[in-house]
């Protein structure tokens, strides 16, 4: 009796495994068909883009518009962070990995396997609580604030108030960009870490003496964006690299993009998206950039 | 003769139904066991990789205070000391349980000993409602109400262990309360009757008889509350400030095991040291819930009445 029940149990589990793996197989067949694709107008397939939360709203919006014209291509956009995006596209779990940083900058990613598609540029600026009464800082002062050498706003011409540094999570794309441009290898002071632009915005807005950094699209009139060396954080200054803190938004594919994936990435780079959507959502168009940056941070004119 | 023999020897429809029902039960149990083993194996293998593959000293991991898994220290070893997170997790949890317990037991005594049937009919759903509120809502309320409040009273940024404690206090209150009510109600009525017959007042009966008799149940309730507080991630993450620093006082930003996990996991790559280090934190959480479960089992075994 006992033997029989164990056998039935094993059989049941085995049957379930079969069903599950069966699903898995058919799923992977689908996606491989999608990645092969066909070059006719009737391209169809399923594309999943995962990664950077900074890029997510733009890709989501673009995907919706794209699918109106290409009803046979099904695009799913998910967040999860740049690290997730890069590692999942590397394992081929997803077709597109969104990232704020170059694959070369991320530990554990083999950048040679991945193809980079830059789709937009994001500028970032230091932001402070309005109470501190600071509007302009030198690059050196910003560096000293974030490394913990300046701890009171009066040292940089503001109010007599303690500085509260709010950082982004370690490994976040925004933080990596900011640290590469401002700290240049120095280690940031240990302080609060928040995992999203939205939370940082809320905290800086409500905490007297708080300082952090945000993507341009999150800066509003309740917080003070700081000019650095009298250069204002504007799109025009980013385009000429007068404003130094900016990064590309990347969409990585494993190998060269084909079929539906290529079609979607081409659409991201088309004027439809770059001329209107990108600007509307607070990003800077890749076509407007007058300079280019490589993965080591070296800037050269285009 | 043949007919009867055949009837007796073949299996009836009911027997097959019996097999079928049993089969389904065993299948479900098998699946759950499989799932639990998979989870245990997954977390353990990933969490132990920090020590086996990346050669981090377990002792360093548990006692050092510097958490910086992405960089190497001056001796070329990765810096992962989880002590600040462990200390913060424990202090937030224990403080929350310490504040919540008197309130919870007070409410439980009222509900089981004093209130009329209608009274507990209203109170019960109110308390159960507190369980159903999603933790992100608690966190948001904490961020918009408790954090500014603490900042105004005590100064600083308002983020820290104290804010985390207050949010968790509200979150574990219903858990402890409803389990305490159950344990107080399960004290046999004749205990109370005997005590009253001996001339004890109502308060004496509650204090000296009912509460004493219910102690194992009450302890279980508190430990379940602690387990919930220990594992809570989102609400705590929103109010604690997430700084991997040794907490100096109750109002300086700190980071619990869970808040570190939720903040950093999306930014690390599977299989690298920073990712493995986070899995080691998860392993600590898993071991803690295992220990808490064992304590509950232990209390339950000793305190049957």
Automatic annotation (TrEMBL), chain A:
GO molecular function, one term: phosphate ion binding
Membrane-related topology note: Lipid-anchor
Keywords: Cell membrane, Lipoprotein, Membrane, Palmitate, Phosphate transport, Signal, Transport
GO (cellular component) term, any one: plasma membrane
Gene3D superfamilies: Periplasmic binding protein-like II
Superkingdom assignment: Bacteria
Keyword Metal-binding: no
Subcellular location: Cell membrane
PANTHER family: PERIPLASMIC PHOSPHATE BINDING COMPONENT OF PHOSPHATE ABC TRANSPORTER, PHOSPHATE-BINDING PROTEIN PSTS 1
Family: Belongs to the PstS family.
Name of this protein: Phosphate-binding protein
Organism listed in the record: Companilactobacillus paralimentarius DSM 13238 = JCM 10415
TrEMBL record, chain B:
An example Gene Ontology molecular-function term: phosphate transmembrane transporter activity
Family membership noted in the UniProt record: Belongs to the binding-protein-dependent transport system permease family. CysTW subfamily.
Transmembrane segments: 20-44, 82-110, 122-147, 153-176, 209-230, 277-296
Entry function: Part of the binding-protein-dependent transport system for phosphate; probably responsible for the translocation of the substrate across the membrane.
Pfam family, one: BPD_transp_1
Compartments it resides in: Cell membrane
Source organism (scientific name): Companilactobacillus paralimentarius DSM 13238 = JCM 10415
Main localization (coarse): membrane
Record's protein name: Phosphate transport system permease protein
Residue ranges of domain ABC transmembrane type-1 in the record: 86-296
Example of a GO cellular component annotation carried by this entry: plasma membrane
Keyword annotations: Cell membrane, Membrane, Phosphate transport, Transmembrane, Transmembrane helix, Transport
GO annotation, biological process: phosphate ion transport
UniProt topology in membrane: Multi-pass membrane protein
NCBIfam families named in the record: phosphate_pstC
